[in-house]
């Protein structure tokens, strides 16, 4: 096999009480990537559509993540890639992670899968470092493994894939405003009261248990973030209204996706997710801010080989 076409999924990180550790993979939203073997060593990005992103290997997360993997494998040949972006950069649904995950999974597939998917995560994290100047796995892990993923530890890296209940559907609203990840980080307190920490880890335990036992009410009760959301929500216009409307219309929970500006809701059934989508659209329609709304199943596979 000399060429592969991939679906590179969008992801929701910072899932409320899973702030900085828990993410999920979306099924219906993602980029496409084509990777071809080439006799020339290294990685060349030959085409990008859908976004104005650098073609230079060292300035593109796909190039950086791919080179990290190539250097590890010490290959005598290289790859050419085409990236067809559908996920808007800076939307908070893992635009850079989709490219970082896609390139490492694609190269591994073209080589006959010498590495396990889990083993690809550190190379994708090298790409993420370019986008956010920090090594984080909360978007690349779900993009590579699919489902929900928990980063239990960074040193050593330990990522746990968590079972995803079959009736869960995600609704995302992406308001067209910019939230700088650096600002979203800088407004968080450096320390939190013990009481706050206890609430957060109680909810995270509840959420993980709810996912395994398919206890949707428990999932709903647990989807709360007392650490980051109280500060970060102020960067997203209408956040409180969107959350109120989503919960009133049957969403199990609602929170900030990544570091924003996207807002996610989890819902039991496609019908509820669609209903929530329609109702939260109404909230943003009353503002002058443009927006996109998506409804998606949770993707259990991560990056998918299309052909
Ligand atoms: P999101 O907020 O959706 O998670 P990120 O903030 O992770 O998006 O990534 C966006 C940043 O990464 C932008 O500054 C963008 O220019 C840069 N970038 C570099 N290469 C890529 C790529 N292949 N895909 C998306 N973003 C990229």
From TrEMBL:
Give the primary localization class: cytoplasm
Q: Which residues form the GHMP kinase N-terminal domain?
A: 68-147
Q: Does the keyword Metal-binding apply?
A: no
Q: What class of enzyme is it?
A: transferase
Kindly give the InterPro entries that the UniProt entry links to this protein.
GHMP_kinase_C_dom, GHMP_kinase_C_sf, GHMP_kinase_N_dom, Homoserine_kinase, Ribosomal_Su5_D2-typ_SF, Ribsml_uS5_D2-typ_fold_subgr
What residues does the GHMP kinase C-terminal domain cover? 208-285
Protein name listed in UniProt? Homoserine kinase
- Native species: Flavobacterium piscinae
Q: What taxonomic classification does the UniProt entry list for its organism? A: Bacteria, Pseudomonadati, Bacteroidota, Flavobacteriia, Flavobacteriales
């Amino acid at each position: 096999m000399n060429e592969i076409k991939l679906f590179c999924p969008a992801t929701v990180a910072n899932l409320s009480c899973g702030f900085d550790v828990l993410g999920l993979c979306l099924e219906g939203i993602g980029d496409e990537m084509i990777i071809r073997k080439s006799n020339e060593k290294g990685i060349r990005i030959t085409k990008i559509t859908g976004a104005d992103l650098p073609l230079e290997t060292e300035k593109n997360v796909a190039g950086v993540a791919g080179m990290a993997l190539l250097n590890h494998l010490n290959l005598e040949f290289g790859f050419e890639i085409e990236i067809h972006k559908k996920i808007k950069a800076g939307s908070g649904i893992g635009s850079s992670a989709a490219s970082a995950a896609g390139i490492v999974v694609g190269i591994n597939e073209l080589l006959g899968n010498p590495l396990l998917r889990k083993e690809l995560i550190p190379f994708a994290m090298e790409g993420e470092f370019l986008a956010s100047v920090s090594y984080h796995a909360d978007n690349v892990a779900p993009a590579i493994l699919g489902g929900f993923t928990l980063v239990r530890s960074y040193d050593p890296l330990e990522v746990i894939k968590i079972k995803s209940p079959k009736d869960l559907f995600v609704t995302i609203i992406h308001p067209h405003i910019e939230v700088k990840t650096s600002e979203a980080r800088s407004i968080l307190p450096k320390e939190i009261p013990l009481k706050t920490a206890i609430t957060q880890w109680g909810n995270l335990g509840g959420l993980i248990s709810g996912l395994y036992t398919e206890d949707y009410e428990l999932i709903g009760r647990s989807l709360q973030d007392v650490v980051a959301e109280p500060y970060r929500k102020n960067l997203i216009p209408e956040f409180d209204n969107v959350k109120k409307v989503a919960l009133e219309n049957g969403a199990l929970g609602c929170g900030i996706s990544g570091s924003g500006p996207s807002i996610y809701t989890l819902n039991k059934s496609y019908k509820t997710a669609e209903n929530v989508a329609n109702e939260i659209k109404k909230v943003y329609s009353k503002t002058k801010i443009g927006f996109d709304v998506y409804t998606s199943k949770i993707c259990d596979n991560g990056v998918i080989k299309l052909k």
